[in-house]
């Protein structure tokens, strides 16, 4: 009764969230739940049969699945910290520059986000081509190479890593530059009076005060990297020898190459578990610092 | 931070840092330069070693072929319409919901908010197959509705909007309430004007996000005429017998230009907007 | 307060309406082929009721001889064909969609699952057979006329018969064999190392000598095999067959037979060629488009391909994509001592998805028969080097010496089995190339790679 009353009192609030929730439930939540359900079925094109955990057992026995899982983790662990460190570095260097230069660099680093992943993947594919690509030519001028950028599993994974980093650093660079502007200058001034050098100032003032930004960047970038698809789809197709296979790409292949929607959904469930664990850890960390 | 007060070692480090940043910027811009010049190269020049830093013979044939032999303008329109419509929808839904989550308390608020937030963390690809089946059941395969509807609710937008709304002083709203203003009135005449910067930036995020939702566009559209620009370009570029790099680059350029214009026009919002999300709650 | 809620509700409704309206509009505009509404609204009484047919096709023909202006792109020819039919039967509306080879195996299953499949699909046997096993295709022996069927070569009808039913109407077929760029040997005065059209057979040893004679480190990689994805897997299979290995033993699709001493020998040979720099760098990730470019620029001399390669070369020449004067020569794939390996045929056909309207089915089948008319059979042969499946088409390319050589190979060496009609074809074919890549990259020994392939494939086959 008490609850009913409170709900009635707050009815305007429900009204405000209704449109968002309507679309959210129909086009996100329900499909998500159905995906969970599919993972326990053998989903044929025209029929469905309950198979219990068979899809998951199949994954467990499939070496490609383990490869995809490892690669996904390697991509997230390899890209997210690197992208964050690089963007922080860029921001710290660019922030003290004049307005014009700052704008130029901000745009330079944001540009790849503006250009679509499709366009960039196609250009990179050309630049990285082993025979007529620009990069190997430049390396040749420097007396190095040629490198088979996408030719071996480890190299291809590293290349994908680097290409993805160039595509995502823009946002954190802008964020960090903006956040640096929000740090009161008198903090630095008093630190300087205490004789702290630039590195000490960075360590004891800049870094701690950037923490909220860092956490936000961490969460959004992690989500982004888990979803990397276009680069792999257009540049490597998950190869060579499954070297750049990821859970998301494998899911796409299993669903749309093998018409195996059941196993694809099982892969989706694994991905959900993986993301949840990471998200939980990150939010736990977040929760200590900021309120949501 | 003043240069005058830096030690020589710090200045050298700073200079070195700047050099590295310039190099990194070059790495960022190089593909775009290569794309633009590549689109003006004749085919034999695109696979030539050593490559031409500038196109030796400039040709517009790639663009002619792209625009005349293919419904490229229609593809562009498809992408633009899809992204604009979804953005509009997102803005309406997330500002309404963000306001409620940010400024109101009601039973179930946390549950409702966290459900949304958690799915925000999940890759869209997980929903791909069931969502496709749903859209197909609704008869929306190959339609704008199929492209747009799944993106009307944008959890990230709700999240950002909530963050922003929390920063609006409650006194302002209370005062309006005292004056007898209704809920919608308060929302439209007080909240929305204050939230305009956030609306602008979320709009941009949503636009970019929807524009780049490649996998969904790939799956839900199979009619040539309904393709979105990125999918159509990828299809053209990976065409049948031989890769025509110049054509692919022309396509990539055409896909890039609208986004570039969009970015330049709303640059201010981008920069401000990016901050919204990282505001302390 | 209540007023405001009503207003808000109205606003929300409006948003929803606008959204759904734009969805509905476009839906009407493009006419979903499965909507039965179109058929009923026939209009004038003496006219036949309208029929809407959706036709999905793979990209195959462009720059058709004599109508180059009208057919610069893939799909133009098929649209033109549909227009011809529609001009003849104005009550029929045909929507033609070209789907790329890459998207085809993804879009079609998805559309079947969602019930948005086309009426007609022109695709490769290896794929139409998969849909047949799902039970979603018409049995064409019931609706195609007997006189029409009598005109087909029986071999092709047999190949298309699954569980006693004709699951699709064969349209044309390719065969693939070793293709050489003669120019590269002519330049080096080494033509005597190659077989001739008159005697197209050679051994692996002769092949080995020939390719090593033209190799130039870092510049000319005489032999290429496509292993970057599952497409054109006949190239790698022909190497296995050349060593005497088989994919399946005697049509037994329950297990893989490739993991044999002969199979291992083929794999070892390929690994050795790669080590010796005789394959293009990064061959594991080199797609057909790049291999074609290498052939056209005189950097690759030997590659398994179909007669369609001649059309592609002519197009490339017209578009200025060639260096030098590549000249193609088709001979038998080399084979080891004591092995007489045959060639694969890859037929493409028209599959008709299950129809619940007899009247519509009749017109769909009529259109399919139209697409397979003798006149078109000849056009398919001339414009894409495809072998006709109907007797009435005769031998449209009898003056093409390469066509004649292939015909000879088929007759003298017979056909090899790629498992196109195995129920797990699509899934099994995805398994071989990653293992070949692993062997070439030195991650696995050839034996290990083959054993892993066998294990994975048999697991799929056992499902």
Describe the structure.
- The complex is a heterotrimer of chains A (292), B (281) and C (463).
- Chain A contains 15 helices and two strands.
- Chain A is mainly α.
- Chain A has a domain at 69-114 and 152-289: Orthogonal Bundle (MetI-like fold), CATH 1.10.3720.
- A two-stranded antiparallel ribbon of chain A has the order 1-2.
- The longest helix of chain A has 32 residues, at 63-94.
- The model of chain A has no long low-confidence stretch (mean pLDDT 87).
- Chain B has two domains: 3-59, no CATH class; 64-278, MetI-like (MetI-like fold, Orthogonal Bundle).
- Chain B starts with 7 loop residues before the first helix and ends with a helix.
- The mean pLDDT of chain B is 84.
- Chain B is mostly helical.
- Chain C has two domains: 37-167 and 347-409, D-Maltodextrin-Binding Protein, domain 2 (3-Layer(aba) Sandwich); 176-344 and 418-462, Periplasmic binding protein-like II (D-Maltodextrin-Binding Protein, domain 2, 3-Layer(aba) Sandwich).
- Helix content of chain C is 45%, strand content 12%.
- Chain C contains 18 helices and ten strands.
- Chain C has helices at residues 2-30, 37-40, 76-88, 104-114, 125-133, 146-150, 154-159, 182-187, 204-214, 234-242, 261-275, 288-296, 308-318, 358-371, 374-384, 401-413, 425-440, 446-462; strands at 51-57, 92-98, 120-124, 161-162, 165-166, 169-181, 302-306, 328-331, 345-352, 387-388.
- In chain C, the strands form two sheets. In chain C, strands 1, 2, 3, 6, 7, 8, 9 and 10 form an eight-stranded mixed beta sheet that branches. A two-stranded antiparallel ribbon of chain C has the order 4-5.
- In chain C, a hairpin with a 2-residue loop joins strand 4 (161-162) and strand 5 (165-166).
- The radius of gyration of chain C is 25 Å and the shape is globular.
- Residues 12-45 of chain C have low confidence and may be disordered.
- Classes of the chains: A mainly alpha (292), B mainly alpha (281), C alpha+beta (463).
- At the B-C interface, helix 4, helix 6, helix 7 and helix 10 of B face helix 1, strand 2, helix 4, helix 12 and helix 13 of C.
- Chain B: One of its GO terms (biological process) is transmembrane transport.
Multimeric state: heterotrimer
Query: How many β-strand stretches of chain C?
Result: 10
CATH class of the largest domain in chain C: Alpha Beta
Mean pLDDT of chain A: 87
The helix/strand order of chain A is: HHEEHHHHHHHHHHHHH
Overall geometry of chain A comes to flat
Please report which band the strand proportion of chain C falls in: under 5%, 5-15%, 15-25%, 25-35%, 35-45% or over 45%.
5-15%
Q: How many DSSP H or I helices of chain C?
A: 18
User: What's the name of the CATH homologous superfamily of one domain in chain A?
Assistant: MetI-like
Question: Rounded to an integer, what's the Rg of chain C over CA atoms?
Answer: 25 Å
Q: Flag low-confidence runs of chain C.
A: 12-45
């Amino acid at each position: 009764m008490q609850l009913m009353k409170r709900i009635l009192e707050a009815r305007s609030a429900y009204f405000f969230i209704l449109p968002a929730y309507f679309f959210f439930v129909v086009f996100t939540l329900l499909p998500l739940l159905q995906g969970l359900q599919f993972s326990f079925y053998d989903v044929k094109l025209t029929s469905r049969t309950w198979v219990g955990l068979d899809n998951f057992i199949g994954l467990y026995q499939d070496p490609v699945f383990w490869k995809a899982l490892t690669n996904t983790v390697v991509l997230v662990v390899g890209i997210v910290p690197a992208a964050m460190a690089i963007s922080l570095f860029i921001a710290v260097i660019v922030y003290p520059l004049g307005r014009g230069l700052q704008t130029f660099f901000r745009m330079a680093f944001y540009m790849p986000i503006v250009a679509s992943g499709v366009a960039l993947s196609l250009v990179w594919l050309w630049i990285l081509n082993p025979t007529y690509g620009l990069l190997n030519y430049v390396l040749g001028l420097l007396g190095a190479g040629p490198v088979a950028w996408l030719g071996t599993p480890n190299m291809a994974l590293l290349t994908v890593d680097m290409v993805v980093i160039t595509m995502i650093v823009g946002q954190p660079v802008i964020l960090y530059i903006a956040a640096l502007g929000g740090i009161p200058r008198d903090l630095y001034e008093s630190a300087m009076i205490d004789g702290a050098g630039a590195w000490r100032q960075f360590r004891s003032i800049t870094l701690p005060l950037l923490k909220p930004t860092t956490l936000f960047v961490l969460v959004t970038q992690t989500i982004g990297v888990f979803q990397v698809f276009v680069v792999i789809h257009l540049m490597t197709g998950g190869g060579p020898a499954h070297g750049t296979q990821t859970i998301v790409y494998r899911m796409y292949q299993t669903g749309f190459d093998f018409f195996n929607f059941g196993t694809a959904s099982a892969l989706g469930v694994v991905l959900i578990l993986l993301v949840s664990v990471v998200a939980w850890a990150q939010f736990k960390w977040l929760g200590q610092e900021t309120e949501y | 931070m003043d240069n005058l007060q830096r030690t020589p070692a710090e200045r050298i480090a700073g200079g070195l840092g700047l050099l590295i940043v310039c190099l990194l910027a070059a790495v960022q811009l190089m593909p775009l330069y290569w794309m633009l010049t590549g689109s003006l190269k004749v085919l034999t020049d695109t696979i030539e070693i050593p490559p031409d830093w500038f196109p030796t013979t400039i040709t517009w044939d790639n663009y002619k072929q792209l625009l005349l032999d293919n419904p490229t303008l229609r593809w562009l329109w498809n992408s633009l319409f899809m992204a604009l419509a979804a953005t509009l929808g997102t803005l309406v839904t997330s500002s309404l919901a963000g306001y409620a989550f940010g400024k109101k308390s009601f039973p179930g608020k946390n549950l409702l908010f966290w459900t949304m937030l958690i799915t925000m963390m999940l890759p869209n690809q997980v929903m791909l197959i069931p969502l496709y089946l749903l859209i197909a059941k609704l008869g929306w395969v190959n339609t704008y509705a199929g492209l747009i509807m799944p993106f009307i609710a944008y959890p990230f937008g709700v999240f950002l909007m909530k963050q922003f709304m929390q920063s609006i002083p409650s006194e302002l709203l209370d005062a309006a309430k005292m004056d007898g203003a209704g809920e919608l009135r308060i929302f439209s005449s007080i909240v929305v004007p204050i939230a305009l910067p956030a609306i602008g930036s979320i709009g941009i995020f949503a636009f970019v996000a929807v524009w780049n939702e490649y996998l969904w566009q790939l799956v839900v559209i199979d009619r040539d005429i309904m393709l979105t620009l990125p999918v159509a370009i990828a299809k053209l570029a990976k065409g049948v017998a031989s890769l025509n790099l110049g054509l692919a680059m022309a396509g990539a350029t055409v896909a890039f230009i609208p986004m570039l214009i969009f970015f330049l026009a709303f640059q201010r919002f981008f920069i401000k907007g990016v901050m919204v999300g990282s505001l302390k709650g | 307060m209540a007023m405001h809620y009503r207003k808000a509700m109205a606003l929300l409704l409006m948003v929803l309406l606008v959204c759904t309206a734009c969805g509905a509009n476009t839906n009407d505009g493009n006419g979903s082929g499965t909507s039965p509404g179109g058929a009923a609204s026939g209009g004038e009484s003496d006219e036949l009721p309208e029929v809407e047919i959706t036709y999905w096709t793979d990209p195959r023909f462009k720059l058709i001889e004599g109508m180059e202006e009208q057919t610069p792109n893939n799909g133009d020819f098929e649209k033109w064909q549909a227009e011809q039919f529609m001009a003849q039967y104005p009550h029929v509306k045909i929507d033609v969609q070209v789907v790329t080879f890459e998207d085809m195996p993804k879009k079609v299953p998805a559309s079947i699952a969602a019930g948005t499949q086309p009426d007609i699909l022109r695709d490769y046997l290896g794929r139409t057979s998969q849909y047949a096993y799902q039970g979603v295709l018409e049995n064409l022996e019931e609706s195609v006329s007997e006189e029409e069927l009598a005109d087909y070569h029986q071999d092709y009808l047999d190949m298309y018969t699954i569980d006693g039913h004709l699951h699709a109407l064969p349209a044309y077929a390719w065969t693939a064999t070793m293709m050489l760029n003669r120019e590269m040997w002519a330049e080096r005065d080494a033509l005597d190392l190659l077989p001739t059209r008159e005697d197209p057979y050679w051994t692996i040893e002769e092949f080995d000598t020939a390719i090593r004679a033209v190799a130039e480190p870092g510049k000319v990689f005489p032999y290429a095999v496509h292993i970057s994805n599952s497409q054109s897997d006949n190239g790698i299979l022909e190497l296995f067959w050349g060593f005497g290995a088989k994919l399946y033993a005697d049509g037994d699709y329950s297990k893989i037979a490739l993991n044999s001493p002969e199979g291992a020998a083929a794999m070892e040979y390929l690994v050795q060629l790669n080590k010796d720099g005789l394959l293009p760098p990064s061959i594991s990730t080199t797609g057909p488009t790049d291999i074609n470019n290498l052939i056209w620029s005189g950097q690759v001399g030997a590659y398994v391909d179909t007669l369609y390669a001649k059309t592609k070369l002519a197009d490339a020449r017209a578009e200025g994509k060639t260096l030098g004067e590549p000249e193609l020569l088709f001979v038998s794939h080399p084979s080891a001592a004591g092995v007489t390996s045959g060639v694969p045929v890859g037929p493409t056909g028209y599959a008709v998805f299950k129809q619940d309207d007899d009247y519509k089915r009749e017109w769909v089948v009529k259109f399919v028969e139209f697409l397979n008319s003798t006149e078109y059979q000849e056009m398919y042969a001339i414009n894409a080097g495809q072998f006709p499946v109907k007797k009435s088409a005769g031998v449209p390319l009898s003056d093409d010496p390469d066509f004649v050589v292939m015909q000879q190979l088929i007759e003298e060496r017979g056909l090899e089995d790629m498992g196109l009609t195995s129920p797990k074809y699509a899934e099994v074919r995805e398994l071989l190339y990653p293992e070949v890549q692993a062997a070439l990259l030195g991650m696995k020994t050839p034996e290990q790679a083959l054993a892993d392939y066998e294990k994975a494939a048999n697991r799929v086959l056992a499902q």
